[in-house]
Amino acid sequence: MRSAHWLALAVVLSLSTALLATSESRGQPVGKEEATQWTQWVIPLPHEIVIEHKVLASAQQIAITLLPGASLLEREAAAELADVLAQKTGAKINVGTGNTNQNVLEIVLGCCDKDGKLAGREAPGAKRLFTLHNSSQAYRIVPLGPRTLALLGTRAQGVYYAAKTLKQLISSSPASAQKQAAIPMADVTDWPDLAERGLWGGSANNDMAWMAERKMNLVETHVGLSLDADGHGVAAISQDLLNQATRHAVKLVPIVTHLEQLPAEVLARLPQLKGVGKHDVDSAPVCFSQPKAEEILADWFMCLVRHPEIGDVNVWLSEDNVACQCPKCKTVNPYVLQTQVIVRAWQRAKRVKPELRLRLLLTQGSYTSNDKVLAAAPRQVGITYYDGGRTYESSRHPMIYPLLEKYAAEGRWLGCYPQLTASWRVVTPWSGPQFIKARMAEFAAKGLQCLCGYATPSNRFYEFNVTAAAEWSWNARGRSERDFSLAWATRQGLADPAKAADWAVILGPVGWDVYGGHPLLGWVYGGVADILKPGTRAKLGSGRFIYFPTPEHFDADLATCDRAMSLAQGLRSPALVEETHVIRGLVGMLKGLYLMADATAAGKKMTAGERHRAADALSLLDRANREAREGLLNWGHAVSPQYLPCRFDDTVDCLDRVMTEASDVAIGLGVGDPAQSYRVRRIGGWTNDTFRTGPSQQVTWPVSRFIKGPGHYEVAFHYDDRGWYGIEVQQVRLVAGAKDAAPLAELARDRHQGISRGQSNSATYQLRLKTYDPKQRYSVVADLVGIRLTSPNDRSASVGAATIRQCKEDARRSHDH
After folding, report:
1. In a 3-state reduction of DSSP, which class is residue 769?
2. 643-682 pLDDT, tens digit each
3. Where would I find the H helices in 423-573?
4. What's the half-sphere exposure (Cβ side, CA atoms, 13 Å) at 714?
5. Tens-digit pLDDT profile for residues 189-240
6. What b-and-e string marks burial along 400-411, b requiring 16 or more CB atoms within 10 Å of the CB?
7. pTM for this predicted structure
8. Are 221 and 362 contained in the same domain?
9. In a domain, 796, yes or no
10. Which domain holds residue 738?
């Protein structure tokens, strides 16, 4: 490694010397500070880059040249480069296949031959590209004389990435009054550390251009799986999606979903595939001993390989350990049996397309059998590591465990499905350079070839972390955490990039302290009962508090948040300010829960002093909760003003649930809760039965026990993602009447269309009660539109809940969510 480092350095130095020797003919000199500013616009940072000269040129003085027979990707690269130059010069840039004007700055794009020549012309350093890691994506930017800049690669993908780098460099300078573009006569040699860098799920399908700008080159996507009239398997994928991938140098890999989650149609029409054993609606055992299982998989593969753009298929092993218990299946490990059937189906498809590659996704179900799966898979089959509890996590522990580390060290193809966010289930802000760099550095060091990250529900919520993954999966040992954060802030156009970089670097570890223990995930599924259970003392350094080893650690992190806030408030970025509020609020909530749990551990035998400490802790928890909740709502609207998904709603809901449960514990132990009326309470819900007589329904829920006085009340609708469809809400009214009389009088109304489903919008309703009469009976009346009777059986579930809370008048106004 030491000799390789010095060889790379020697190459850079020799190139620098060559550039200096021709400095006068290469244009204007570039100083070290200007070169540094230029490279701050390039993400990811190239492995080797030198900028010592630049040329200022108008549109008439620039020509972009493609070699005859240029590929679609090379033409796309030239077009993108022409676009950015046109933006700088204010005029169209000529793109052709030849240039005879010696007074024009020519940017020539193309693939070099193995002798390092570009269309017969010597390109210094180009021959070396064939020796580099992942050479098919390696590229070179190099001056060929005083008026020619070559962008070349061993293949078209490298040429495309060379153009991306030059495009980012040119983007760094503002358009000049002289209508000239500043073009660096750069010397760059670059290659990726990981061969595949990309995403699945979230907004990946819609973000290919955005990802390609960061040199990400992989999207794994679900495809439509069904049967034709004769019972043969049919797999459908969008040709538009394939075309988009081709245009942006992205490998689109179709996914055959978890094998226990095959479409209901398959088992309904092919009953011989129904396995023996217990199962539920979403997770049914398939009998892989039936020849039809292999046949259907082969049909799906052969449908997919008819598309020339598809070279790989990924099959997800069963996620839940629901294995068929028939006599044949019982004799074989279920995951080995699945692997054997998948491999045989793949081999059948290879008769149609011999170059078809297969990859298998490991799961939490297969974890204890992963060694057997690896042994059963032929060497040319790739393995991707996924585990719902081990790769979808944000701890500081290494991710690639010894079995897979050894597998990759043997030269086998290994990828990983890590979350790039705070959690796979909740949506909460975290710009974590230390977290992402640690993950990518581990993957590169352990010889992985593929990053397929998960950033749900959309990259818009996690652009920092996804961009950081692009940075360090390409060049794991390049920038420091601060240098990357500075480059990111520079490209974001923040008011003071240096302060923004400081903000990210000091707040990132605090976020890691919080999210590493997965508290919000626990609150979504289990609330805080495990922490506040009487007789149990919360243990620092483990569980939700794993990265808070001492009580003092809470205060140290809170002080760091204060420093981060002082930086964020000067950056004119609401998203950064609100992210700081959220993380500071979450640290405060964890501190409040710890102190409350410590005080209430004795249960009803609490001393007066413990009751006082519990009350103080509940007050601290309440203040921190309000900061986190309001910060989360404001952050959501800052980063995604168009819509907030149901998982965002769930995150807000879990923060509310923490306070409701903590309040219940305090009241149950006689501590009391002065803010009891402000806690969120469930008032009712909806199911399929609600819409049995039609999609439009009016529902009434009694709320007298939650109305304790005049004020502002908030009714919210919460979609449960167990249901396929959510609801539309037309209006919500607060009505009241005498306990033994009708009709009810309308006291408040909020009429607007709200949607509570996968992408919720405006599903919160504001009702203001001017006067309160304890003798009245209060109810909430909601006009809903739900599922229709014509909905398909497997898509007709609609489940959700409605809640109410009184809002504090001095609180920051909540947004609809």
Report:
1. strand
2. 788 788 889 989 999 999 999 999 999 999 999 889 999 9
3. 433-445, 463-474, 481-492, 497-515, 519-526, 551-568
4. 20
5. 999 999 999 999 999 999 999 999 999 999 999 999 999 999 999 999 999 9
6. beeebbebbeee
7. 0.91
8. yes
9. yes
10. 680-807
